[in-house]
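Lab notebook, bench 4. Still working through the backlog of constructs that have no structural model yet. Next entry is a single chain of 182 residues. Request: give me the structure tokens for it.
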Amino acid sequence: MTKIVIYSLIVLILVSCNGYSQKTDPKSADSSQIEKIDTITKLRSDGTKEFEVQTKNGFKTGSGFLFDRNENIVGLKHFENDTLNGFGLLLYENTFKPQYLYESNNGKRDGVLIDFYENGVIKSFRSSDLFNDSQHIKFHENGTIKEIGKTKKGKANGIWLYFDNNGILEKKVEYENGNIKK
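Model written out:
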């Protein structure tokens, strides 16, 4: 009987010591949280990588990369807390030169959109939202200015300037709601 009492006391002491050793100070638990870093990879049906982005605690974060079928990087999208925020870039798959450079805010294309010719020269520069008020600039393939104007609710509005291949002003046209003003 004394042996049973002694064994019971030993077990109780061990259990209470074990329970005590696992208690933590709530303040120290908050400051020592571990971030879980992982990667999301999207594959095409043929098994080649199409997209890859790092996650932090389950949220897409940083640059996500787009891949061609040979798994060369052909673009990127920037994420913050699982939402598109910042600049994105799409490349021509045959030259790896920029095709589009765009800005996203809160998951939507919002801000600047730059379109490039395949030779790398800027084709146009505009607000990425075509259906609101914006500025619009186009360039000839040789890099000289082609046209410049504003839009209102997505339609040409105000004075637009048009230039020849040498950058010489050819004409001014005034628009109102997309129609030439008389």
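Notes after review: The chain is about 15% helix and 50% strand. The mean pLDDT is 84. Flag for follow-up if needed.
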